[in-house]
């Protein structure tokens, strides 16, 4: 199998969007981490007004994909006092549609995870091998598939322009963008399910896939990018506006090339990523999860990280504060923010002490399907 690019070749791929000057890549700043945190707050305030003036997309629809177990010590860092070693997270896809100034319609899928192939991520594959089938069925619930949800929404795969992930942990794109060679495990040379779609990714993450660090290896499937055509990707350097009320912000830390989706809706600005797994992790003082509020007070932490990988922890903390400063207050409960975790903490009887205080479950904007 052939890895489709080298680190140097990543710089030669085409890109997309309009650069956001108000938000810079603070992970490359010469300022110390504390100063970067103050700068992140200022940049968020500057970008809020600029972003709101771009308008709103035509619609945002949420689609549940899969609920699966995740170690409590990762999802809630060191803060949780829950007895359960695992909690549950629900991975959801956002379908975002907008109209460009020239009248062209665009469709973006945020977090369109192929969870059937995603289970072969080294960490989850090892966990599955150690878990009896009857027990796994208690923890894993499949709600729907990417293609099934699109059919329900009346969207043809050929209409999809962009695929976007906050980062490429667990992702296998073979069936979405196709490959250039026969794949033994699939028994075929898969054709692209989305023949016109491009994957928007930070150049840093695309380059990292070609030469993974040991801290990264349990969470990536580098073999799943072998034989993927390089032209399937649209790398970006930093933060860009894609369309009216739709932007991608570089938010490094959870992975070097992490990015967040930002959308402007009828209820204000939403931010989405997997930097945290619950909106209350941005305001732990309002959390009823065992241990969170006390831990945050004791350690003077204003956020609780999702920390399965700690590539650059201070950068991740600063990125979360940037997200926190951008998101508007929830209309359902103003104590919490319109931060929508791409994998959201979900209560389950199997995981005592991990039921969220508040959950969004969905972003709703524009015309919704019947």
Automatic annotation (TrEMBL):
SUPFAM superfamilies associated with the record: Metallo-hydrolase/oxidoreductase (SSF56281)
Required cofactor(s): Zn(2+)
Record carries keyword Glycosyltransferase: no
UniProt KW keywords: Hydrolase, Metal-binding, Zinc
Transmembrane segments: none
InterPro entries the UniProt entry points to: MBL_superfamily_lactonases, RibonucZ/Hydroxyglut_hydro
Name of protein: Metallo-beta-lactamase domain-containing protein
Source organism per UniProt: Streptomyces davaonensis (strain DSM 101723 / JCM 4913 / KCC S-0913 / 768)
